[in-house]
Amino acid sequence: MSALILHPRTMPGPSGRVCFRWGLLAILLVIGGWPVVATAQEQDNPDAMPLIPSPRSEQGERQLYDSMRSRLEYYQRMQGQTARTTMARDRMSSESRQTIRVPAAQNRDPSANELPYLPETGNRLANDNLHEQDPVVRLSGSKPDQGKTSAPNSQRSQPKTTGRNTASKSARARTAQPEQPARGTSIRTGAPSANAQKSSTARGNSDPIPRRRTHTDSMHALEAIFKNTSPVPGLPVDLTPAARGPYRYFAPAVYKGLYLHNYTARTASRYTSLLKQARKYKLNVLVVDVQPKQPPKEFIKLAREMDFYLVARVVVFEGGLRSWPPPRKHIDQVAASAQAAAQAGFMEVQLDYIRFTDYWKGRSLSLPQRYRTVATIIKHIDDQVRPLGVRIGADIFGRIPFNQNDRIGQKLEVFAPYLDTLYPMLYPSHFYGDPMMQKKPYKAVYDGCRKSVERIGHESKVVAYIQAFKMKVGMSGLGYQRYIYDQLRASTDAGGQGFVAWNARNQYATFFKAVAQYNQYITAQKQTVTSP
Q1: Distance (Å, rounded) from C-alpha 342 to C-alpha 320?
Q2: Which residues contact 74 (CB under 8 A, 6 or more apart)?
Q3: CA distances (Å), 131 to each of 144, 157, 395, 411, in order?
Q4: Whole-structure pTM over 0.70, yes or no?
Q5: Ramachandran area for residue 212 (φ above 0: left; ψ -120 to 50: alpha; else beta)
Q6: What is the pLDDT of residues 140-184, one digit of tens each?
């Protein structure tokens, strides 16, 4: 506004020019006095952003250097670093030189209610959808379509990219791993695990076997996590894990399975050929959707006659829990579906989406409250299903083995005391923000399985969900069959107890070829172990 008023064109005649000159002089005087004002502001507020004056004289030049030094100190204070600032000796007297010491930044508590490191996303939230979503008609209880990215349902749509997610952050966070417990004997038998020893010997790995976790260890861990947290209204208050067994069915020592969605399990023309091929390639486990309808008796009868171990996949919260407290009516319906599956002849119940949504917008809940909520739901379903003599397992996000704390309420040390089997979903394509994992399928599955086994010992089986779909396979530079084969081999080399292949369309032709190659690998490993 002042420039407009003082412009000579706005003031015609001699009087206008005079006013313009006086106005310009006033502006120059104001500018000349600004360094004094800036210095006073800095003295009153040492945390304020220092201003840089313009050098007009020797005094102004000194003020310029003083202000530049102040700006440097300001940035150092903001970064929480200790630094020594020295200025040009010919410009500043010895009295003005000083050593600036800034207290070190306080360590941030990762257990505080803040977002932990997520290996699948760099340091951002992965999308809820970690299973593949193929462009097919969505069936209730099955995985969503791959093309959908709007609703955060089960675990599966891709996240938005943010500027702060870098590969270097992912690499640094992966290398800073928490201290792992010592390794020892199997909780099942009290003796060292022969299978783990053979696997370790076969691959030339001298790493010790995970130590035995006892019931006392589990209870101490739960008590520490749930300390000072309130119970979930309407659900069990006593969260002591129930005794396991006796079981009505034997479980395979190593799970070699594939997933069948509800439509396939209810269509004889589809499941008959799949079951025959699965037996041909020595698979022994079928994970089957039991929602929205239980598979027919004919399917269960045929599968059992072919000696398949039947696992009923039960979705707890489609897309994750979005409200608190959790709806009791819905949880009872889920428990009823699990009971019906056990009574129909399924030998294990696998809980999926038993977690909070990644996009929580409800009341503020601490991490222990979230863990307690998830554990309470598991305990409630456990009380309804265990008396039927079946095992209970649960799917977990692929990032959970890498995280000590996670906002979705899943934690290995919370799940293991209640569950017989843990199924980490280690699809390489879904390690968002970590190209190294996406390019190396062996590493993604191996690291996830190994960390799971190290953290829970043999308290629960670790059976990896592997990627049997083509999403981002091209990033690895491998063929589709080799991509699957590397995951199969990693699930064994890491000391896990098997795998389950996931393909939303149930198209497993290439997977079967990879399994044939994997069977040859296992045979060669056994020969290496038994040879003198």
Answers
A1: 24
A2: 47, 48, 49, 50
A3: 8, 9, 11, 19
A4: no
A5: beta
A6: 333 333 333 333 333 343 333 333 333 334 444 443 443 333 333
